[in-house]
Design a protein that fits this description.
Blueprint lengths: L6 E3 L4 E3 L4 E3 L4 E3 L4 H24 L7 H37 L4 H6 L20 H10 L6 H8 L5
Antiparallel strand pairs: 1-2, 3-4
Pfam families: DHHC (PF01529)
Keywords: Acyltransferase, Lipoprotein, Membrane, Palmitate, Transferase, Transmembrane, Transmembrane helix
Family: Belongs to the DHHC palmitoyltransferase family.
Length: about 160
């Protein structure tokens, strides 16, 4: 029986607990055991890109005319543009993952909630796994354990009547 919040990845041909997404950049699924490392990977990528932006900006030299300035700095402007776009995309990815972690939701659950059996009947803003921002962040970054999501789900959806 497939555990709750798990999904079978068609690309990797395996079942992944707390499946978030299959990442083509790392050629692997992001799930319960490596989501924290994926977040660290994004953070390191952003820091390296910002460092590259700093280095490229420090290399720009003045020129007497626009034409001379463009000739002297053309390559750096291209590199700055490319690194700037990559930095922006990485920052957006990092921000999205931080938001999803703070509400204890995965990318797969966020994008496909209308198809997932345990989320179909929930309201649009309702998440049965959300324990509050602080607890969600604490559990993600500080607690290293496998969670029985079925118990969390039953506890959060119990009928008080």
């Amino acid at each position: 029986q497939q555990p709750m919040r798990a999904k079978h990845c068609q690309t990797c041909k395996r079942c992944v607990r707390r499946f978030d997404h299959h990442c083509p950049w790392i050629e692997n699924c992001v799930g319960e055991r490596n989501h924290r490392w994926f977040f660290a990977y994004l953070l390191v990528q952003l820091l390296v890109l910002l460092w590259a932006l700093h280095i490229a900006l420090s290399g720009i030299s003045p020129g007497a005319t626009w034409e001379l300035w463009l000739r002297a700095n053309g390559f750096l402007l291209g590199a700055l543009t490319m690194v700037g776009v990559f930095s922006w995309v990485t920052l957006l990815l990092l921000g999205c993952h931080l938001y999803l972690v703070s509400i204890n939701c995965t990318t797969w659950e966020f994008m496909s909630r209308h198809r997932i059996s345990y989320l179909k009947n929930c309201e649009d803003e309702e998440n049965p796994f959300d324990r509050g921002v602080f607890c969600n962040l604490w559990d993600f970054f500080c607690i290293c354990r496998t969670v029985m999501w079925e118990q969390v789900y039953k506890k959060n959806t119990s009928n008080p009547v």
